[in-house]
Amino acid sequence: MELRDTDRALVQAATAVAKLRCRSQRHTVASAARTADGRVFTGVNVAHATGGTCAELVVVGTAATQGVTEVETIVTVTDRGREVSEPCGDCRQVLREYFPALRLIVGPVDDLRVVPLGEVPAEAESGTAG
Fold this sequence. Notes:
Blueprint: H1 5-21, E1 30-34, E2 40-44, E3 46-48, E4 51-53, H2 55-65, E5 73-78, E6 83-85, H3 89-98, E7 103-106, E8 113-116
Parallel strand pairs: 5-7
Antiparallel strand pairs: 1-2, 1-5, 3-4, 5-6, 7-8
């Protein structure tokens, strides 16, 4: 799928949060999600000794507190916004259950693309983002 201007803006939102908030080992990954009506929600992972909560799930929870029931697109960035990452297998499962029509922004920063959540290659299932 073609990357829209709103998709580029979503990557910029996640990158801005990563640069601002991902400055320690507790927060290393940022996500941003957009609703169909254009609202954007952001979040960072919460790492701790027993594991942690991925940034994608923080975003889903944040959106839910505002009454959002549908998220259209999500992107996850690492390395303070220098890399785009795919959601880990556990997050992918949650995202499929909540938002089956979700679009993911994936790929190298200089060659981003949008793919439906259901079309991400199986080998990416074991990947971990945060």
